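Lecture notes, part 5. Sequence design as translation. It can be helpful to think of inverse folding as translation between two languages: the language of shapes and the language of residues. The source text, in structure tokens, appears below.
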């Protein structure tokens, strides 16, 4: 299951991040038993559920000489946060 949000509704910051990262989507992975469901493992073990959050930081810089030429540089950084429900 995946949820997609309009940019700028939620964000994550601090904790070693140099900028504010906007949440663009999150998704859940779950299973029918407690030992399956999570996409990733912890200590080699799967768990019943996992949520993955995808945040981005977009920096757009424009340089120009007079009104004639413009150079556009876009930087996109991804911040991935994953949490596992451990039982």
């Amino acid at each position: 299951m995946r949820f997609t949000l309009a940019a700028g509704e939620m964000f994550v910051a601090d904790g070693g991040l140099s900028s504010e990262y906007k949440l663009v989507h999150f998704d859940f992975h779950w299973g029918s038993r407690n030992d399956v469901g999570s996409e990733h493992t912890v200590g080699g073990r799967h768990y019943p559920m996992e949520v993955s959050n995808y945040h981005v930081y977009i920096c757009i810089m424009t340089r120009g000489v007079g009104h004639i030429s413009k150079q556009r540089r876009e930087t996109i950084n991804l911040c991935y946060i994953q949490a596992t429900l451990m039982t």
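The translated text above is only one of many valid answers, since several sequences can fold into similar shapes. The CA atoms of residues 58 and 69 lie 22 Å apart.
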